[in-house]
Amino acid sequence: MARHPGATPRQVAQALGIPERRVTANFDRLTDDGLLAVASDSAPGAPRSYLLLPVGGEEKQPSGT
After folding, report:
1. From the CB of residue 23, how many other CB atoms can be counted at a distance below 10 Å?
2. Which of 26, 40, 34, 39 is nearest to 53 (CA)?
3. 8, 11, 21, 43: which is deepest, by most CB within 10 A?
4. SS3 letters for 1-65?
5. Position 22 pLDDT exceeds 60
6. What is the pLDDT of residues 27-64, one digit of tens each?
7. How far is residue 45's CA from residue 35's CA, in Å, rounded to a whole number?
């Protein structure tokens, strides 16, 4: 995630050669633990992408907001 922010579970599964279901389950757990954040989930049926959160578990807000 650090090298490929915004990666989807499918992209990660293909890169690692493991089932997408396993990646999704782990991403859900890491999101619940505050280590990942969902980057996009805008349209119904659109693939989710994820970002690695900085230490402390909060997304950085762009400057000026």
Report:
1. 21
2. 34
3. 8
4. CCCCCCCCHHHHHHHHCCCHHHHHHHHHHHHHCCCEEEEECCCCCCCCEEEECCCCCCCCCCCCC
5. yes
6. 999 999 999 888 766 667 777 888 888 876 455 444 44
7. 24
